[in-house]
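User: Quick sanity check before I run a bigger batch. Here is a single chain. Can you write out its predicted 3D structure?
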Amino acid sequence: MQHLQRLSGLDASFLYLETSTQPLHVCSVLELDTSTIPGGYSFSRMRDELAVRIRAIPTFREKLANSFLNLDHPVWVEDDEFDLERHVHRIGLPAPGGRVELAEICGHLASLPLDRRHPLWEMWAIEGLDGQDPRKGGRLAVLTKVHHAAVDGVTGANIMSQLCTVEPDAPPPVPVAASQGTNPLRIAIGGLGRFATRPLHLATNVLPATVNTVVDTVKRVTGGGLAMAAPFAAPQTPFNASINAQRNVAFAQLDLDDIKTVKDHFGVKVNDVVMALVAGVLRKYLLDRAELPETSLVAMVPVSVHDRSDR
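Assistant: Done. Predicted structure follows.
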């Protein structure tokens, strides 16, 4: 019998913390030059090609399964009624099809929640960029939306590399089986077993790791090094307010060679340069409005952890 693919505590937390005003999916926008597609672009052809590639991506064919008797997190199972047309959509930009129109439609799509009855992703082919027809070689934007319970930044990038290829004649990927279906009783029994062993896991894994973290933090503080900010130590800003479901999107374009020049000069990574840019823009935004606090803001930078035992 196949082992149940149960969500980790971290992955499940994105389900538990989600609200109508706080959707916890992630979005990416690709801009494609359809003039380089052998045979040209059509939406139906794009959808057919996706159908082939999704056979190698179990994440895009699995849905959540649970039981009201389950004392642990939900599990992933193959969606026996998987229908690609439910997930892949086509939409056109209003004229003139510029960055403003693209940002508005991406913000609207990002605001919509994903249907938990089906695999937690959607893809939107956005046609009409700059008023051009992608069927005649115009550019195409593709927005992909996936729930954070299913992917993080690294796994999301890996999935995109499987959906796309830089070789026009690349062979189709080898299909990969998804998690098989199950029943509520099995989910509940498995959850009961994990619930019963949770105190042991807490004592042997979580508590020692927590103690080590505290000791390491104390050493950094007493040694004059940088330490993690204390909880609730961030100053008040205009961003400390209730949010609604609407999401706003804006675009900026930078030359990657310029980013790499800065990276090489300071001996850092591309992500470090991006963080510095974001921090600088945020500071200028607050300065322009005379709302920069006297104490520094506190930033939380998530780190991908792929070893489930570390989650």
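Residues 252-300 form one domain.

User: Great, the batch can go ahead then.
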